[in-house]
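quick one, 146 residues, struct below
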Amino acid sequence: MTDLARQQLHQGIIDEFRSNDGKVAQFTDRDLLLLTTVGARTGEPRTWPLAYVRRGEDVVIFAANGGRPNRPGWYFNLIANPTATIEVGTESWPVSATVATGDVRTRVWHGIVDSSPAVAESITQFQSQVQWEIPLITLTRSVDTV
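---
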């Protein structure tokens, strides 16, 4: 798939998500959110549709990039600026991103396996296609300081 075709596919998913209260026909077997980051190079907002798993009050996403050889652009955006916004269903809120490492990553992974076997299976499949460990990112709701 070309980059343009992928962008068009993502935009179609984003449009359907926003038109249907967060529901997308082709993603009935997993939860989907929209992640909006600030572009690391451009400073422009970038929105991505992603599968996610709840972990208590937090949301966990994974930077598998569909098993392609490089990490996804949104991952680098979060590394450069760990603040973002997510849309879940009809709600939207600011979040802070933390990449899970070591024992924390192990606990997060086991939580994904227990709560969402379909997502765990996808991550495992993608992991077999790449040479790097797929990052698991915890998104924590930011507290407004107004």
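The helical segments are 3-19, 73-80, 102-115, 117-127.
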